[in-house]
Amino acid sequence: MYQALVIDKADAGTRASLKTLDDDNLPEGDVTVRVDYSTINYKDGLAITGKAPVVRKFPLVAGIDFAGTVESSSHPSWQAGDRVILNGWGVGEAHSGGLAQRARVRGDWLVALPPGLSTRQAMAIGTAGYTAMLCVMALQGHGLKPADGDVLVTGANGGVGSIAVLLLARLGYRVLAATGRPHEAEALKALGAAEVIGRDELSAPGKPLQKERWAGAVDAVGSHTLANVCAGTKYRGAVAACGLAQGMDFPATVAPFILRGVTLYGIDSVMAPKPLRAQAWARLAHDLDLGKLDGLVREIGLGEAIAAADEILAGRVRGRLVVDVNR
What we know:
Elements: E1 2-10, E2 13-21, E3 31-39, H1 42-49, E4 60-61, E5 65-73, E6 83-87, E7 102-105, E8 110-112, H2 119-142, E9 151-153, H3 159-170, E10 175-179, H4 185-191, E11 193-198, E12 214-219, H5 223-231, E13 233-241, H6 255-259, E14 263-266, H7 274-287, H8 290-294, E15 297-301, H9 305-313, E16 320-324
Parallel strand pairs: 9-10, 9-12, 10-11, 12-13, 13-14, 15-16
Antiparallel strand pairs: 1-2, 1-4, 3-5, 3-7, 3-16, 5-6, 6-8
Helix pairs in contact: 1-9, 2-3, 2-7
């Protein structure tokens, strides 16, 4: 028997509740994992509250990622005792996920926990931090160097944004952090931001081409913010887009792309190929300041996860929520 946060269909949408399940409730898969920690990401918040149609199969255990220890495996890459991480692959959307004490998944979806990281630290990073690293890797793959100029991070107090600030600053970039919580400016500077701006500078409709302000950007917000980010990017600069906190729309023109040669990279963390995942996690273990990461973390128990989903959607969570599924 194990505890899990289950999402069911309800008359008025969906309903999330904590339930006790048995092994018959585990989904198909060739690896069974004893989960240590999971997280609450923005997508988890949408799924748990039912405010967006994230969940596509009912009933379903929520949680798009987890870290833990293999209990049993018929997959050639894994054996009992291996410590593993899972992000994406439709887990927590169409396949029962990580907000539970046990999970069963396909072994091809798993990544080995890198040396030097604990399972708790892995979920302090979570899908948000893994996505942030994919963004940083895209910018670096574009050729962006610290000498090229500032790098903007939008939604800087959120999970993706805060870890993007940490990573970029550690790698030597001058980071410009945009946030809707000005009272958190000092916290962002402690993470490495050189300058903090208000999100209202970017969130309203703007000119299609604006003053060149940053050489690159990580955007977790979308909509008018992303349009303004592209419009303010320097010649031959790059933007990595990975979120839609403001909206899924992109009310922009082609001006930044055809007049300044700006490149917009779309960052998909869900279906990213396994070699790219392994590279991202290895770099996180090496490049991230784990001491500062600890300062971003608030730990909760599995029973607190439903209330936390509302908090994250309301923008009241700074940094990362780690869920100890065994308390």
